[in-house]
Structures are given as C-alpha cells and as structure tokens.
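User: Can you predict the 3D structure for this chain?
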Amino acid sequence: GQGGRGAVRAALVALALGGCAHGAVDRPTRVDADDAIVYVDAVADAAVWIDGVYVGAIADVARGLALEPGHHRLELHHDAYFSHYQALDLAPAQRLRLPIELAPILP
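Assistant: Here is the predicted structure, written as structure tokens:
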C-alpha cells in the first residue's frame, strides 16, 4: 500500500528542506489557494506530526504548515514534555495560530 495519505501534503510554506536527512517531508509541494495554513507555537525543538507523518521540529515549521482543508490530527512530541494531541478541522484558506504550552515531565 501507499505509506502516506494524499491529505498529508504538509507543505512547509516558503521553506526548502533541501538536505534535511531526517525529515519525512523531503519535497515540499506547492501551496494551493484553498490550503489552510497552521502556525504552531510551542517548544522550538518539539517534533511535529500531522496525521501520523513527521513533518519537522517546531523551528522547521515556523512559517506555517499548509494542509488540505478537512480533518487532521496534530501531535507534538518532546523527550522533556508530555506529548500533545489535537484534532484539527480546517476550512479552505483558513489561517490558524496554535499557541501550545507543553506540560513538562518532572524528574
């Protein structure tokens, strides 16, 4: 089968990953006019996953994630914080800023 889903384009807006060896998004696609743009504000080195696909660290997606309208699942993971899971229901051309405060894991 196909490992990814068509809705998981997760284009990194105006950001070329070029030689990023660890990124699952190795060729950002163009942004369509009806794509929703999601801006995630959290711990800079937290890992961002969309619909089960790794898209980069928070710092890598600072200019926004372009996603097809519809339902998506956002996940943030970091070794020093509890993971964050959030369902997104995005409208065409929506702009969404998500300030997310991760809860630290106490020693």
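The mean pLDDT is 80. Residues 49 and 63 are 16 Å apart (CA to CA).
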